[in-house]
Amino acid sequence: MSASGGTKAIIAALSANLAIAVAKFVAAFFTGSSSMLAEGIHSVADSGNQLLLLLGGKRAKRASDKTHPFGYGRERYFYAFVVAVVLFTIGAVFSLYEGWHKISQPTEVESPIWAFAVLIFAIIAEGFSFRTAVKESNPLRGRQSWVAFIRRSKSPELPVILLEDLGALLGLIFALFGVTMAVVTGDGVWDGIGTLMIGVLLAIIAIVLAVETKSLLLGEGASPEVEEQIRAAMESAPEVARIIHMRTLHLGPEELLVAAKIAVEHDDTASDVARGIDEAERRIRDAVPIARVIYLEPDLDRLRTTNA
């Protein structure tokens, strides 16, 4: 992921959510709508989440030290996981509680014009934010489906913003549905139903984000396509007879560790082996620039020796 692209999407989402949160709280005050209140809390949670993503990106840039010799790249995964937890605890749980409370003790929606005006404004603002996230994601997504992109992306920011913005748009539609039905029928229960729908939606998005970021936190290897590029580059080095085995690990979205045992000819000198390793590392970095940490262990090509 382009760091600037991810930051641009985060700032666009943050700007939209701060403006929308204020508008929603004003509408909730005048209308007494639980859907609007839940949406206001949702926007506040989203704004906090975007600040967490910006903080994670900044902290991930710290230089490596003795305590963290491979750097702090995974800070971005940690803060993305915190975003999922915040989205669930603050957004989903509050909305579910407020929806249940509204259904148990329904009240009439007052001054609905406030709610409709704010929801229309919010849909336009969230649409702009979502469009920015889609635009920044497309170069990275390539020909992948959106589901595959969210599941396979090693950079957490854009998938998080995409799901947040999508959830925000759907949440606004649910809020609009609840308020509209409450006004048309005169029954405040519909407002509570819209709030429950928002809570369920946020819970689903939070769980998806938690599962995906947990996998990144535990440590994911390079994609099959990237691993194939690394293998091809390594095997193209003259002194590398073959790859015995290889492991990769993302130390961060833009930093990959490559460890491999390579077979060399039994009559190669130490100088030949050293030169071959240096050349293999150079070719790997040319092919995959994010392969910044490379460990290659030479071994005799026992398979070829045995066959001979």
Automatic annotation (TrEMBL):
Domain of life from the UniProt record: Bacteria
Gene3D superfamilies: Cation efflux protein transmembrane domain, Cation efflux protein, cytoplasmic domain
Cation efflux protein transmembrane domain span: 10-218
Cation efflux protein cytoplasmic domain mapped to chain residues: 223-294
Residues making up the signal peptide according to the UniProt record: none
A Pfam family it matches: Cation_efflux
Main location group: membrane
Transmembrane segments: 9-30, 77-97, 113-134, 160-183, 189-211
Membrane topology: Multi-pass membrane protein
PANTHER family xref list: HUEL-CATION TRANSPORTER (PTHR13414), PROTON-COUPLED ZINC ANTIPORTER SLC30A9, MITOCHONDRIAL (PTHR13414:SF9)
Name under which the protein is recorded: Cation diffusion facilitator family transporter
Lineage of the organism: Bacteria, Bacillati, Actinomycetota, Actinomycetes, Streptosporangiales
